Amino acid sequence: MNALEKKEGSGSVIPAHSIICRFIGPFLSIVQKWDSQLSLVSEVIEEWMSTQRKWLYLEGIFVGGDIRVQLPEEAKKFDNIDKAYRKIMADTAKRLNVVDCCTISGRLEEFVNLGLGLQKCQKSLNDYLDTKRRIFPRFFFISTDELLSILGSSECSCVQEHMIKMFDNIKALELYVDHTNRPVAAKMISAEGEIMEFRNVVYTEGRVEDWMNLVLQEMRRTNRYITKKATFWYGRNWHIPRTEWILEYQGMVCLAANGIWWTGETEESFLRIAKGNKRAMKEHLEQQNEQLSGLVVKVRQDLSPNDRLKFRTITTIDVHARDIIEGFVRDNITKAQEFQWESQLRFYWLKKEDNLWIRQCTGSFEYGYEYMGLNGRLVITPLTDRIYLTITQALTMQLGGAPAGPAGTGKTETTKDLAKALGLLCVVTNCGEGMDFLAVGQILAGLCQCGAWGCFDEFNRIDISVLSVISTQLQCIRSALLMKLKRFTFEGQEIDMDTKVGIFITMNPGYAGRTELPESVKALFRPVVCILPDLEMICQISLFSDGFLTAKLLESNFQNNPIMIGGLRALTAVLRMAGKLRRASPGLSEMMVLMRALR
Ligand SMILES: Nc1ncnc2c1ncn2[C@@H]1O[C@H](COP(=O)(O)OP(=O)(O)O)[C@@H](O)[C@H]1O
Ligand SMILES: [Mg+2]
């Protein structure tokens, strides 16, 4: 067919040229006949091609796949079309003359009708997929083909390879058949192999979108239960050292419980100061420092890779927590109402709601309990803090956040990092010129229904005409949020709204091939500029959390190093290398290890 199309393209030139030739007189009727015949041929071939394309796509879905069982009516319709199409093709194989094949009377109409029929099949298929997506909105985050492969399979295990796209950092579910012969999902396994065992197993029976919803609910319920338990035992088990307590729980659970205790202890110190104990904050700082030393001792010991990761992340966050308290002591901050405290990300277990809430200034957020294994956290620098604060304040006004700056300054990762702190799923989408409003609309619809965050990377690469449509979509979401609607109409469909949704865009302004954002879009996002990440601090704290104790001394050496010019991405690679080297050759001095890593 492709070969035919090419030939046909060159064929039609000749008559078009001859008709205007002035010696045409004697051949006029012949040429005219050929002209009309060839234009019919070209029309037929065009329809043929488009029908073939649609047929080819749907054939893969309807013939042989399990989708037939789900859509019996459509399958029957498709079979009829399939039969007709195959008949034409068999017929064609016998003739092998293009003109003969295409000029059979009624052929054009036949193809047009087949095309329409296929289009209807496609539409019913899309509607079918849409209903599935509305029941389990995370299906919005996988492609149509992937969704079809899930829906077309009768095995529960068909979701495994797509877990990583629908959940943050989750590799698989543990699936098995229990003693009563019912299929169950019992655990979630993260990409690193950390495990969260469900409190109650989920029966993976019936429709996949239904039991996936149960899995999602159980993930949150279990996570909440463990977080509450860990928070409770943190304070009770004084005879167990903190480092042992950490070993008992999942990484993110430790971070959350840790946050709750740190917030509580800091506020208690403020209270003690108010009661006249001037040293309260200093004592709090001493305790923080002790906790940190405990962690570092542990990090330098032999640990399983996952435990090491966990300790490293906790150390990274703890350093920031310690630094804040250090600042309070230094600047003599004595009241909880001071901006320095208000502007921190604070974790509270609210008794009334019996739930975890996170506050920053005027912002207040319910924790999302999205299990995400040991996906690590960033070093919190002043820039990170500034982005956090901008985002949380924007969210309280139902706006989005727009970090802007050169590549590799941490725009995307910082947004994701805050989502991690709030226990929310964050879906990163790379935008390009080819992105249309339908694709963006699908993702937005998914985000609203899941209560997830979306980070649209390099947003200003999208074509300006598409951006204006997207701005209408965003405005629609915002007004639903402002009116606190539970359901709203988006792109002609009524969908659920989960108020935890957040939409963020990152940009590299002034870079070649990028458009300036229209005002209508700009108005929906709070800008935050990221020019220079604090490399030195990131370096120091990363090394510290990897067990380097004298890293601070290296500052001066480090600054002149070419690696600093290489930017953050190169730096993180070197740091990871340094950690590996240190463990591989424990005899070497830290300085030597660093030098080697740099090479
Ligand atoms: N505060 C930080 N602490 C540790 N690593 C960071 C920090 N900020 C950024 N990075 C690292 O820098 C790299 C680039 O960040 P990224 O968010 O992808 O940049 P951008 O989106 O601005 O291009 C990532 O590997 C990220 O882990
Ligand atoms: Mg980015």
Automatic annotation (TrEMBL):
Write out the GO biological process terms.
Answer: microtubule-based movement
Q: Where is the Dynein heavy chain hydrolytic ATP-binding dynein motor region domain?
A: 367-599
Query: Member of which family?
Result: Belongs to the dynein heavy chain family.
From which organism does this entry originate?
A: Eumeta variegata
This one is known as Dynein heavy chain 10, axonemal
* Cell membrane as UniProt keyword: no
Location comes to:
Cytoplasm, Cytoskeleton, Cilium axoneme
Going by the entry's taxonomy, the superkingdom of the source organism is recorded as Eukaryota
Q: Is-annotated flag, keyword Metal-binding?
A: no
Keyword set, alphabetical order:
ATP-binding, Cell projection, Cilium, Coiled coil, Cytoplasm, Cytoskeleton, Dynein, Microtubule, Motor protein, Nucleotide-binding, Repeat
